[in-house]
Amino acid sequence: MYRLSRLRFLFPIGLFVALFLDGSLSKVWASLFFSYPYNMVSHLVLLWLVLAYFFEGNIKIPLTWFAVAVGVICDLYYSGVWGLFIVLYPLIVWLTKTLARYFSDTFLNMILIFFVDLVVFELLNYWAYYVIGITHASLGDFLVDTLAPTLALNLVYFVLLYWPIQSMFTKALAERQHN
């Protein structure tokens, strides 16, 4: 039913906007996001993918394929390491689906799942960069200087964007019901 819903337009546009904003906010707020020794990494793409899973209803967006596509774009443009985001984004979609089976769809459970997703994403990202020698920060430094500020920033995003995103999905799904 995805092909017949308004989500076929809303979801990819929102994903593109999230991807664009991740880079743009990091550029515009670079002095805030990346002030030594702290780094805050914007993950609006992850937020969009996770919330889309919870708000898609019975439409069933092909999230894994979109995650692969956005992973390709991120790898080509942002990371310089081919294959990292192609693997991580679909992995987070799978993790979200797996965790969601064990929790009800409440705001607090969704924020908890998003928190776990962020931790796994950032730790795997750190580990990959550490293994190939791009980063030399210790795990403790990473946890304090990058993971903690990144979690804080993205949990604020979650709280601020949860209801507007839910409203967009609800309207798109409601219009599908009326047609």
TrEMBL record:
InterPro entries: Cell_shape_determining_MreD. Its main location: membrane. It is found in: Cell membrane. The keyword Nucleotide-binding does not apply. It is a multi-pass membrane protein. One of its GO terms (cellular component) is plasma membrane. The keyword Cell membrane applies. GO terms for biological process: regulation of cell shape. Keywords: Cell membrane, Cell shape, Membrane, Transmembrane, Transmembrane helix. The chain crosses the membrane at residues 36-55, 67-95, 107-130, 142-163. Belongs to the MreD family. This is Rod shape-determining protein MreD.
